[in-house]
Amino acid sequence: MTLVNRKLQNITRVVCAEERYVIVTVGNMLLINVYLPCVGTVDRQFTYDALFCNLLSWIDNYPDHMLILGGDLNVDIDKICPVSTLVNKFIFDCNLHRCDTLFNVGNTLSTYYNEALGIESNIDYFLVNDVSSVLSFSVLDLETNLSDHRPITISCSMKNITNANVPVAHEKSPTAGPNLQLRWDYANLNLYRSVIAYKCKKTAVYKHKLTASDTSKTAKITKK
């Protein structure tokens, strides 16, 4: 999902929206949001190769735009494997730069962390074609985050983002009533885990009783 401020809606255009990537232009910026297949996916390497070929065609259509590509690449591109080789080749072919290597941020947090399994890795990235525009990069460790992925963020300095012939919208803040939509980032994490654990426990007990009952029936049938 790509969210753009309403003030920029007059200069925003959805270029392409596919299953694994979305391309949007905002003025002279080309934003590409990607989600690539995880380990174990059927024809995973082929999916990477085909997706990068498609992205190259789109990028070639916007040679004068600043490119920002971000998302879950589902591979640690610092480790050697067939998939990381494809990713690094794409980065090289497009003359892109990793934002996580532009700044000396010390002990950077991993972008993926599964506390239950004790697994962590770096599989989420921002890639840009203009290094001078990137002001900062960081991995956020939010207490309200219910995902295994830690959010990553970059700050960029943009010049002449708007077209002089296309006015930027300046809307007043809405005066409607309060938004009653549920927010996951305000959820009670401890309560969430307790409910899930309770439901899973009940499911396990029910499965155990059902298995025992089926075994008993089988034994009686065999005995006859």
Question: Regarding CATH, which class of the largest domain?
Answer: Alpha Beta
End-to-end C-alpha gap = 61 Å
As a percent range, the share of strand residues is: 15-25%
How many helices in DSSP terms?
Answer: 3
Residue share in helices? 25-40%
The major sheet is characterized as:
6 strands, mixed
Structural class: alpha+beta
Shape: globular
What value does the Rg take, in angstroms?
24 Å
In terms of per-residue confidence, which ranges show pLDDT below 50 for 5 or more consecutive residues? 168-174, 215-224
Write the element-wise H/E pattern from the N-terminal end onward.
Answer: EEEHEHEEEEEEH
Give, in spatial order, the strands making up the sheet with the most strands: 1-2-3-4-8-5
Provide a descriptive summary of the structure in words:
With 224 residues, the chain is α+β, with helices and mostly antiparallel strands. The protein contains 3 helices and 10 strands, in the order βββαβαββββββα. It has 2 domains: 6-156, Deoxyribonuclease I, Chain A; 187-223. Helices cover 29% and strands 22% of the residues. The strands form 3 sheets. A 6-stranded mixed sheet has the order 1-2-3-4-8-5, with no helix packed on it. The chain has a two-stranded antiparallel ribbon with strand order 6-7. A hairpin with a 3-residue loop joins strand 1 (12-17) and strand 2 (21-26). Mean pLDDT is 81; it is low at 168-174 and 215-224.
